[in-house]
């Protein structure tokens, strides 16, 4: 009786712990996707609302509570990265406070990648995460359509509750023609919206492939095509085509590719592609590499190995050379300039760890899915800006990795290839 009683208490404690972990992870989703960076800054101001303090506190609490279920090798790497970046940030910014700020934006979120969820937690969390992302992307798409219908008046109104920078950018395209329109949203810039659409597409396709369907694949495909067309992202269009070609399961690949092709043809003749096509006539990097060459020639502020020029230095450079910040609109360059080359490489080692793990496991569909998102986040500077972008990327990665973990267990039990 005593043994049974002890076992019962142990099971109850495990269930309570699992419930707390689940609630912590759902709360992180809420304070990142719902009470988002844009909304926080709009309501509380950039200084108070910028850093996701609640989200970061939840990540640290999750780390302390669930440490035994984390990837220990990866967590050693994260510890080294956090220490190196923290020290570099203090030296680069001449401020201990700024050291904590840099860690909060860019390295503490990396903890999420190391979480190995147990079966019940995995199913509950993944379902909730995908459903929240699905609802968010449907709302963003509908708002984009309504914004066009109202001559951009909808987002002008919504932008009053967003950052001053986003509000300024939205106001510049009032009454723009559909060919020149680029879709801003509740989450911010068109390029970040492109990233969200690609995440929405790849996570739904792979969850359907390995488990079950949450949202019809045809709806997912159509929303993604329409959304990326509205964002007018050149790299996004290229990555979308790759998604359509390689991410569908074999049974539905041909059918969905035909549907996708017809949808693109329809949108092409509607004139909505005109601006995107015109943008392909210029440099794919939109002048970033040309500015980089100019910066390199001037050699005024060469990139340093162990430290940088401080948080926000990229934009202060504009006071010396006009539009100099455009040269740093790639995360690795911007990180290197602001916190140093070595700390930047360490951050990227954490982001490359998952894809190496997936390739080693021969889970190529998941590796391609993450590879697409990793490629996209490296085409613009969103990841290196002071925002929730790193948390959002890490939530996607932990979902992909736990799909990998769970399918690997199924494979080991059944002796079949996934």
UniProtKB/TrEMBL annotation:
<feature type="transmembrane region" description="Helical">
    <location>
        <begin position="219"/>
        <end position="245"/>
    </location>
</feature>
<feature type="transmembrane region" description="Helical">
    <location>
        <begin position="363"/>
        <end position="383"/>
    </location>
</feature>
<feature type="transmembrane region" description="Helical">
    <location>
        <begin position="97"/>
        <end position="117"/>
    </location>
</feature>
<protein>
    <submittedName>
        <fullName>Uncharacterized protein</fullName>
    </submittedName>
</protein>
<feature type="transmembrane region" description="Helical">
    <location>
        <begin position="74"/>
        <end position="91"/>
    </location>
</feature>
<keyword id="KW-0812">Transmembrane</keyword>
<feature type="transmembrane region" description="Helical">
    <location>
        <begin position="335"/>
        <end position="356"/>
    </location>
</feature>
<feature type="transmembrane region" description="Helical">
    <location>
        <begin position="20"/>
        <end position="37"/>
    </location>
</feature>
<feature type="transmembrane region" description="Helical">
    <location>
        <begin position="129"/>
        <end position="149"/>
    </location>
</feature>
<feature type="transmembrane region" description="Helical">
    <location>
        <begin position="257"/>
        <end position="277"/>
    </location>
</feature>
<keyword id="KW-0472">Membrane</keyword>
<feature type="transmembrane region" description="Helical">
    <location>
        <begin position="49"/>
        <end position="67"/>
    </location>
</feature>
<feature type="transmembrane region" description="Helical">
    <location>
        <begin position="389"/>
        <end position="408"/>
    </location>
</feature>
<keyword id="KW-1133">Transmembrane helix</keyword>
């Amino acid at each position: 009786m005593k043994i049974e009683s002890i076992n019962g208490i142990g099971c109850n404690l495990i269930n309570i712990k699992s419930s707390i972990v689940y609630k912590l992870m759902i709360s992180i989703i809420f304070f990142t996707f719902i009470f988002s960076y844009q909304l926080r800054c709009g309501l509380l101001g950039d200084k108070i609302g910028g850093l996701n303090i609640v989200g970061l506190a939840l990540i640290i609490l999750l780390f302390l509570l669930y440490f035994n279920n984390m990837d220990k090798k990866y967590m050693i790497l994260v510890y080294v990265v956090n220490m190196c970046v923290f020290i570099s940030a203090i030296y680069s910014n001449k401020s201990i406070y700024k050291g904590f700020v840099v860690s909060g934006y860019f390295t503490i979120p990396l903890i999420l990648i190391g979480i190995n969820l147990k079966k019940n937690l995995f199913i509950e969390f993944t379902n909730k995460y995908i459903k929240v992302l699905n609802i968010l992307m449907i709302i963003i798409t509908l708002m984009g359509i309504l914004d066009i219908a109202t001559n951009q008046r909808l987002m002008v109104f919504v932008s009053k509750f967003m950052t001053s920078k986003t509000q300024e950018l939205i106001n510049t395209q009032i009454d723009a023609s559909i060919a020149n329109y680029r879709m801003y949203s509740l989450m911010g810039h068109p390029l970040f919206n492109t990233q969200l659409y690609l995440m929405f597409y790849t996570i739904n396709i792979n969850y359907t492939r390995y488990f079950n369907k949450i949202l019809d694949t045809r709806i997912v495909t159509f929303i993604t095509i329409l959304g990326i067309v509205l964002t007018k992202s050149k790299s996004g269009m290229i990555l979308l085509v790759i998604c359509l070609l390689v991410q569908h399961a074999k049974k539905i690949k041909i059918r969905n590719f035909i549907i996708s092709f017809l949808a693109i043809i329809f949108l092409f003749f509607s004139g909505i592609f005109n601006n995107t096509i015109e943008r392909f006539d210029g440099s794919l990097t939109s002048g970033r590499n040309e500015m980089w060459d100019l910066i390199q020639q001037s050699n005024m502020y060469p990139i340093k190995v162990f430290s940088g020029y401080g948080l926000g230095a990229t934009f202060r450079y504009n006071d010396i050379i006009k539009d100099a910040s455009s040269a740093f609109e790639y995360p690795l360059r911007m990180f290197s300039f602001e916190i140093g080359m070595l700390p930047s490489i360490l951050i990227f080692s954490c982001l490359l760890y998952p894809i190496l793990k997936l390739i080693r496991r021969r889970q190529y569909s998941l590796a391609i899915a993450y590879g697409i998102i990793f490629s996209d986040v490296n085409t613009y500077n969103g990841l290196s800006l002071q925002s929730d972008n790193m948390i959002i990327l890490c939530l996607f990665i932990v979902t992909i990795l736990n799909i990998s973990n769970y399918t690997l267990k199924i494979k080991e039990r059944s002796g079949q290839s996934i």
